[in-house]
Specification:
Layout: E1 9-18, E2 21-31, E3 36-40, H1 47-55, E4 61-62, E5 67-70, E6 73-74, H2 80-85, E7 88-91, H3 103-117, H4 126-139, H5 157-171, E8 175-179, H6 187-200, E9 207-211, E10 225-230, E11 233-237, H7 242-253
Parallel strand pairs: 3-9, 3-10, 7-8, 8-9
Antiparallel strand pairs: 1-2, 1-4, 1-5, 5-6, 10-11
Helix pairs in contact: 3-5, 4-5
Length: about 260
């Protein structure tokens, strides 16, 4: 459990390579509990790779001096599944289809693993979980029939994003990394997604990091911090108005 003066996530001197290419050099930033943050930047800058590095994706290659602290503990060398059990969730940009596994089965496995590793994690019965899943699906206007099908196997892009949001809501992670969660959603669905994201940080215990382009979704959220990644360098801004300036710059550069 982090102390009150500690950030939920602290990243120090993070240098990341992928396929022998240097993507990020000596990045430093922190995320406080109860905040909504966004990571933006040009295509190919390494935004998704940074999110994967935080959750410990196997293809992430960090230097030995790179440090990631989560809830006051050094998780730099922990495997992906252990970081997930500690309460980090990644909504993938392109979620993997899981033939033969339904949403309920996937969620139940993840929740039971969290219960074993985190004494403070709330215990819920199967009946309670099903009620929460159905209520969240209704709030997102997600077809209930999808809940009984193989996860992401035949889903549309928008359906996959709604399912990822549903999983995030049910799993109750301390840190939610949402990679292009707005992709494939119409304006009405974006509004519902924004409502869910705002609800995630209510209470001040959970934190969201959105990985996004300049989307209408961002205009519906009270952003606490902007992370800008370009040319291997990460810059941090606390003024949400900076987002408009960065968008204008990217449009001017022809990269948006």
């Amino acid at each position: 459990m982090p102390k009150k003066d500690q950030p939920l996530l602290l990243v120090e001197n993070l240098t990341l390579r992928k396929d022998k290419k240097l993507l990020i050099k000596k990045a430093c930033f922190s995320l406080s509990a109860g905040t909504i943050n966004v990571l933006v930047g040009p295509n190919g800058a390494g935004k998704t790779s940074l999110a994967e590095a935080i959750i410990g994706y196997p293809s992430s290659h960090l230097t030995r001096t790179s440090k990631i602290f989560f809830r006051g503990k050094d998780i730099s060398r922990l495997k992906m599944e252990e970081r997930a059990r500690q309460g980090i969730f990644l909504a993938f940009q392109n979620p993997f289809p899981l033939e033969g596994l339904t949403l309920e089965q996937v969620l139940l496995r993840a929740i039971r693993a969290r219960e074993k590793s985190d004494p403070s994690y709330p215990r819920r019965s199967l009946r309670q979980l099903r009620q929460e899943i159905e209520a969240t699906a209704a709030a997102l206007q997600l077809d209930p029939a999808l809940l009984r099908q193989s996860l992401h196997l035949t889903f549309s892009g928008g359906e996959r994003k709604k399912i990822e949001l549903l999983q995030c809501q049910i799993l109750r992670p301390h840190l939610a990394l949402l990679d292009e969660i707005d992709s494939g959603l119409d304006l009405a669905a974006l509004s519902r997604a924004a409502n869910l994201i705002r609800g995630l940080v209510e209470g001040g215990e959970r934190t969201v990091l959105l990985i996004s382009h300049f989307s209408p979704l961002l205009r519906q959220l009270p952003l606490d911090q902007i992370l800008w990644l370009a040319n291997q360098e990460l810059k941090v801004f606390s003024d949400p108005q900076v987002l408009q300036e960065l968008e204008k710059k990217e449009l001017a550069d022809g990269k948006a």
